């Protein structure tokens, strides 16, 4: 949907970010020019969530959640950007003009949601009331699922041939059913439903809307589990089964357990185990990681104990670690599903199993890499040690936290029985080679270097100090120019500021990586006794550093002249003397 920039700005200005956030977080307190409280997106005791009414932004300096008033409402209410805009517009009685195309697009999605919701009700009613659902009810009972859980998850059953008859009564068109992913069409033009003769598990998005279905056959079928295909309202790599049902508990606990199947989620949640979710017939993805990090501070992966389960756990770990998410791995006994274990041994035993079998990410990887080395002779082979260390360092490199990397390297050294400093040197050598290749072969070397240089240090460079001062005291924009900024990011922000963009406008032009850097920079407000004096000192220091760099370059040239390796140049020598005198006068 296209909303004019003027309308969006009116909505933004009518909803001051501090007043909107205070409605959600009443503990928000003023601290100078900003407001501060504990972050709502992760557990913390020391407040690190900053709101700047002046700039119209928020940022948590612990979990890096950041953005404008629309982004905050999106995250807290689990809604899309357009829905957040509409919500805030309604709150302030601002009318949004929708084009005919926008109305049609929204109408089509609304139609799909209506069809999917109605279908879930139909399947659920069939399970509970249909005479043809006897086997399905027996299956549900055998798996230990009670009536309350059936209704909470809207579990259903699809009797053969009845769904299409029901859709005729509802006056649903086949084209709409195809778009909703409920039926498919053969080459001969015959329609049939995906879920026929299956126990049906509706898949909900985080807003509680039915977006798709999963089905488990109760007849002798070679495909045991089947999901409806991706549609305009459903992407399997961006949804987790069971997430909606456990959202309220997640906001308190902020701990997620990732399993593999529908029953692995339904039964644990029935037993009161919170935060249990499952992927939907696909491997764990970056989008899953983003979804997980929004609602939890730690993740436990609970996969089968076979090779396939361990491989799935490793792939998931690699993604989660790369996103900076704390994660552990637990294991079920071989050939036992989570629901079977719970029904046989109960909740307390299940939670104890989780705890007792729990391994940190690096311990799991060490065991996985070294598990195949049975004899001490093989383990002590230098070649095998080097190969093992190499595999484990590849995993350690996925974390961007240097403290975690150092601790993992200590664990690797101890388990492989190798000197820790040797392992650390190997790791640093790999990082240098990776960096060298990144700088040398990047398509846009200037941008690549900036990305590599990015570093979460608290101290700012001189250029960052200058930019910080200008952004917080915009009267000084006219007293400088872009030539003072050699850092590509700083120059870009300065030029966007000169063009008239405000903080939120600048934010919306940046990549996710640069957004974090920019928000940390602008919210790191430096208080000066005399802003004008500080401004002059920073400019002078930048000039001095550049003059010193120029003087050193000239010095190298003059040394070559004195050694007869280069023809003498009086102008260059005079410039060198002039710069030397100038720098002495500056106190350098």
Please characterize this protein's 3D structure.
α22 (462-472) packs parallel to α23 (488-498). The protein starts with a helix and ends with a helix. It is 54% helix and 11% strand. The protein is of the alpha+beta class and 588 residues long. The chain has six domains: 5-92, DNA Primase, Chain A (Alpha-Beta Complex), CATH 3.90.580; 99-234, DNA primase DNAg catalytic core, N-terminal domain; 240-357, Dna Topoisomerase Vi A Subunit, Chain: A, domain 2, CATH 3.40.1360.10; 373-439; 462-527, no CATH class; 533-584. The model is unreliable at 435-458 (pLDDT under 50). The protein has a five-stranded antiparallel β-sheet with strand order 1-2-3-4-5, with helices on both faces.
How are the SSEs placed, and which strands pair?
Blueprint: H1 5-14, H2 17-24, E1 29-31, E2 34-37, E3 49-52, E4 57-60, E5 66-67, H3 69-77, H4 81-91, H5 100-129, H6 134-142, H7 147-152, E6 156-157, H8 162-169, H9 174-179, E7 183-185, E8 191-193, E9 198-204, E10 210-217, E11 225-227, H10 247-253, E12 255-259, H11 262-270, E13 276-278, H12 286-295, E14 298-303, H13 307-322, E15 326-331, H14 338-345, H15 347-356, E16 359-360, H16 361-370, H17 376-379, H18 382-396, H19 402-416, H20 420-441, H21 445-453, H22 462-472, H23 488-498, H24 503-507, H25 512-523, H26 531-562, H27 570-585
Parallel strand pairs: 12-13, 12-14, 14-15
Antiparallel strand pairs: 1-2, 2-3, 3-4, 4-5, 6-9, 7-8, 9-10, 10-11, 15-16
Cofactor: Zn(2+)
Pfam family, one: Toprim_2
Subunit structure: Monomer. Interacts with DnaB.
């Amino acid at each position: 949907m296209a909303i004019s920039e003027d309308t969006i700005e009116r909505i933004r200005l009518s909803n001051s970010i501090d007043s909107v956030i205070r409605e959600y977080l009443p503990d928000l307190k003023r601290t100078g020019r900003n407001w501060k409280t504990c972050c709502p997106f992760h557990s913390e005791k020391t407040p690190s969530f900053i709101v700047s009414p002046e700039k119209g932004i928020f940022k948590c300096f612990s979990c890096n959640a950041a953005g404008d008033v629309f982004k905050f409402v999106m995250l807290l209410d689990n809604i899309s950007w357009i829905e957040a805009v509409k919500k805030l517009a309604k709150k302030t009685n601002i009318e949004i003009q929708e084009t005919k195309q926008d109305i049609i697009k929204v109408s089509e999605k609304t139609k799909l949601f209506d069809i999917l919701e109605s279908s879930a009700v139909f399947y659920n009613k069939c399970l509970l009331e249909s005479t043809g659902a006897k086997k399905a009810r027996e299956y549900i009972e055998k798996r230990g699922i009670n009536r309350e859980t059936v209704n909470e998850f809207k579990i259903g059953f699809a009797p053969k041939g009845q769904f299409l008859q029901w859709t005729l009564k509802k006056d649903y068109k086949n084209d709409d059913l195809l778009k909703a992913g409920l039926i498919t069409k053969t080459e001969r033009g015959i329609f049939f439903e995906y879920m026929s003769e299956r126990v049906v598990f509706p898949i909900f998005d985080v807003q509680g809307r039915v977006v798709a279905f999963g089905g488990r056959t109760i007849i002798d079928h070679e495909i045991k589990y089947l999901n409806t295909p991706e549609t305009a309202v459903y992407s399997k790599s961006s949804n987790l089964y069971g997430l909606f049902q456990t959202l309220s508990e997640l906001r308190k606990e902020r701990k997620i357990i990732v399993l593999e199947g529908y029953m692995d989620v339904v039964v644990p949640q029935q037993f009161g185990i919170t935060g249990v979710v499952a992927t939907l017939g696909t491997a764990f993805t970056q989008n899953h990681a983003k979804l997980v990090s929004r609602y939890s501070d730690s993740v436990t992966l609970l996969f089968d104990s076979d090779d396939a389960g361990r491989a799935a756990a490793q792939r998931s770990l690699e993604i989660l670690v790369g996103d900076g998410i704390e994660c552990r791995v637990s294991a079920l006994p071989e050939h036992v599903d989570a629901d079977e274990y719970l029904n046989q041994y109960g909740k307390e035993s299940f939670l104890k199993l989780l705890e007792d079998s729990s391994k940190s990410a690096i311990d799991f990887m060490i065991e996985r890499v070294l598990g195949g080395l049975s004899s001490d002779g093989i383990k002590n082979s230098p070649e095998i040690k080097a190969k093992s260390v190499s595999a484990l360092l590849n995993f350690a490199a996925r974390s961007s936290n240097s403290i975690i990397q150092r601790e993992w390297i200590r664990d690797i050294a101890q388990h492989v029985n190798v000197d820790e400093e040797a392992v650390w040197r190997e790791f640093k050598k790999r990082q240098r080679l990776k960096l060298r290749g990144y700088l040398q072969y990047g398509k846009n070397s200037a941008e690549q270097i900036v990305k590599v240089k990015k570093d979460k240090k608290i101290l700012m460079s001189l250029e960052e100090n200058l930019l910080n001062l200008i952004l917080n005291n915009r009267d000084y924009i006219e007293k400088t120019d872009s030539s003072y900024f050699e850092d590509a990011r700083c120059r870009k922000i300065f030029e966007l500021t000169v063009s008239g963009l405000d903080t939120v406008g600048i934010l919306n032009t940046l990549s996710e990586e640069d957004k974090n850097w920019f928000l940390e920079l602008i919210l790191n407000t430096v208080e000066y006794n005399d802003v004008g004096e500080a401004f002059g000192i920073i400019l002078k220091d930048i000039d001095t550093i550049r003059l010193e760099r120029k003087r050193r370059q000239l010095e190298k040239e003059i040394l070559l002249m004195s050694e007869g390796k280069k023809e003498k140049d009086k102008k260059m020598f005079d410039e060198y003397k002039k710069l030397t005198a100038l720098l002495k006068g500056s106190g350098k």
